[in-house]
Design goal:
Layout: H1 8-19, E1 28-31, E2 50-53, E3 57-63, E4 81-89, H2 92-100, E5 106-109, E6 113-115, E7 120-121, H3 136-142, E8 146-149, E9 153-154, E10 157-158, E11 160-161, E12 176-178, E13 182-187, E14 190-196, H4 202-207, E15 213-221
Parallel strand pairs: 1-2, 1-5, 5-8, 6-11, 8-12, 14-15
Antiparallel strand pairs: 2-3, 3-4, 6-7, 9-10, 12-13, 13-14
Helix pairs in contact: 2-3
Amino acid sequence: MELTLLSKEKTREIIARRAAKEFKSGDVVTLGIGLPTAVANYIPEDQHVIFQSENGLLGIGKNTTGDNMDKRIINAGGICVEAKKGACFYDAATALSMMRGGHIDATVLGALQVDEEGSIASWMIPNKFVPGMGGAMDLVIGSKRVIVAMEHTNKGEVKIVKKCTLPLTAYREVDLIITERCVFDVTPDGLVLTEINPMFSMDDIKESVSADFIISDNLKYMDID
């Protein structure tokens, strides 16, 4: 099955569902703008993961629509969300203190490029106006674990590269890369392919990644349901 047969919505769902499996009860997790915000929709009801938004909300639930939507309660991407029981609101200074102070167990964010050393470029698009990088630099430096959840390519352009060519958000801070095609661990020895979507072949992965990588001895299929 070719990538072109996956809709944009299905691609994002596969990535978000897989990223949601990375947490344990009690974790405090910050979700970046865009695709990562969907991760909160796939956390099991019996798992107590505490989602934080850099605009000052601790205790984010699922995205809300229709009659359940309160336009006053939004995440950093401006999407209306639940405020779960026990949630709290605070100012930007407190949010940044949490992010910079090592209080976040994991952050999930998108990227324009990630390289084989775990460096990430996520904020500068060449020849396009960019309003700013938001809290991305604070998150990747301050979080205990950094997970990149992104579409595997951008209109056919490789995003997992040997060396980032765009301005860096952070140097060697990424721990895990999740796309709709595969999962890579970032290790001191480089990228290790640990999971592959059964919809794709190993050739599909090799042809769409310019970085060098090792294939894990325990390679398994991604759980995409």
